[in-house]
Amino acid sequence: MKSDDIVPLIIDGLDVTTDVEFVFETNRFGGKPSPKKAFAQGASTETCLRAVESCAKAFPSWKRTDADQKRKLFQQLKHLLEVRGDDVREIIEEEINCSKLWSHINLQDSLGLIDEAAALVTSDALSGTIPITRNHNAPALVFKEPMGVILGIAPWNAPLILGFRAVVAPIAAGNTAILKGSELSPRVHYFIAQLFQDAGFPPGVLNFIMHRPQEASAAYETMISHPAVRKCNFTGSTPVGRLIASRAAASLKPVLLELGGKNFAIILDDADLDKSARLTLEGAFLNNGQICMSTDTVLVSRSVFAAYRKKLIVLMKKASSDISAVITTKSSERLRALINDAIAKGADITTGDDTDPSIIPATIVDNMIPSMDFYHAESFGPMLGLQIFDSISEATKIINDCPFGLSSAIFTRNHYRAMMIAKDLNVGAIHINGATVHDEPTIPHGGHGDSGWGRFGGSWGLDEFVHTKTIILNDYGGSAPVVRGTVVLDLHRMNKIIEVNHEYAYAVVEPGVSFFDLFEYIDKNDYNLWPSVPALGWGSVLGNVLERGFGYTPNGEHSQQQCGMEIVLSNGEIVRTGMWAKKDCTMGPLFKGY
């Protein structure tokens, strides 16, 4: 960054300043004058087009970059984030007024997200398949291919995690991406884009833009309607998500939306009440309740309501000093309106430390009824509603009648009972004896209904940013390349697609051939099969047979099952290879001569 007072855009690997500028304030919380103002560069529609065209230009080359090279770049990205972790935590705490715990969570979860992307790049998550077809001489090859330019729109509330999440999976899948940063956390989102540049990602693989809030509609329209932009992912409010979905629909573009959440926790009559109170409190008030997965309402079995509430209030009073001002004055006004409406309609309100009028205190709302705005609305602040239920069906109906469906929690000592309830809930994730605020890089994350559609996380998140292509090989003889210079794969038993020198190869499984014969041949002729070996499931070049795809023969301790294949190289030559495993060995070495 050229100056701490200016946050530029990044396009084609270069910092970009524009004629459009808007002011954002740091330390704008607690009703005090901001001691510092900074200027974020706003993208005009012309600048948005420039960012898209830069990504489109970089896409063909990035699409063909070795998986191994991509993995190394993500590993370097993680290393730089570790080195600069303290710096970005300081920026997060200043920009969004969060606790040190929340900035720590942002950093650690971001590191995990990048780590998972590095692993997925060279896993079978991007491998194709060969489904069964009617005609064995006309096999179908199903490929996973990157889509093109992806627009990722990130929010401010978990700026590092969600900023990375908006672009890491698309880029790992072979796409190029535009990160549209939030005007409330521009320095954090700039930091992400700068980190990609410093890690060595080619110019145009990730571009970074921002715009003034009043220009959001024009910016989204410009980028989403551009032919090169093939998909958009958005994390934020449901109203804005609807707007983006409608714009994308006009251009027949898919979208991935993670939107608002009215998240419930259920306390059953056999729950550990100490644990339930602690985790529902954490789920409600972490980051001042400004998390899409925050617990808004706790449904408590009538028989334990009084005991649970007593424990919850004690914990809230102890933790209330951790509550700070919400992100904007507008947010504060909206929350006070929800509280006042609930009071006017008969709610009992219990608050934590209420000495600072600029801060919305931790607030518990009892006696909730459907006519209250808070009964239906996502608070996105330090508010927690309590409701009594008399039957499981009643609690389930309350949750499923809610238009949102992102996260829920169930507290009970009976896991079977919890599983039966969880299967009936229309939400994206249910946490049994855990807080509603929980996500990991390896698991799918997303919602139902007004909480959006699609999934971030793990291989599911990668699949969001690829499309499938089917190639059917009619009159396929099984031993010759389809087109000279192109290598195509046919692994009917192994069901994998590999690459040799960036070209697809086909292989026919057959016994009695040595892997090392193939490896020596490829090495001698300057072919490169190293990236292909993990894709086949063999582990490294020098170890580990395929763990699936063939069976072991039950003929004694030293029996073995051989598995071989032939690979047709791009010059038309056929090379054969194989491997063997002893009975009951899940991991065995490869041997020459079998």
Automatic annotation (TrEMBL):
The keyword Heme does not apply. Keywords: Oxidoreductase. CDD domains: ALDH_SaliADH (cd07105). GO terms for molecular function: flavin adenine dinucleotide binding; succinate-semialdehyde dehydrogenase (NAD+) activity. Residues 41-471 form the Aldehyde dehydrogenase domain. The active site is at 258. This is Aldehyde dehydrogenase domain-containing protein. GO terms for biological process: gamma-aminobutyric acid catabolic process. Residues 482-578 form the FAD linked oxidase N-terminal domain. InterPro entries: Ald_DH/histidinol_DH, Ald_DH_C, Ald_DH_CS_GLU, Ald_DH_N, Aldehyde_DH_dom, Aldehyde_DH_Superfamily, FAD-bd_PCMH-like_sf, FAD-bd_PCMH_sub2. Belongs to the aldehyde dehydrogenase family. It comes from Pseudogymnoascus verrucosus.
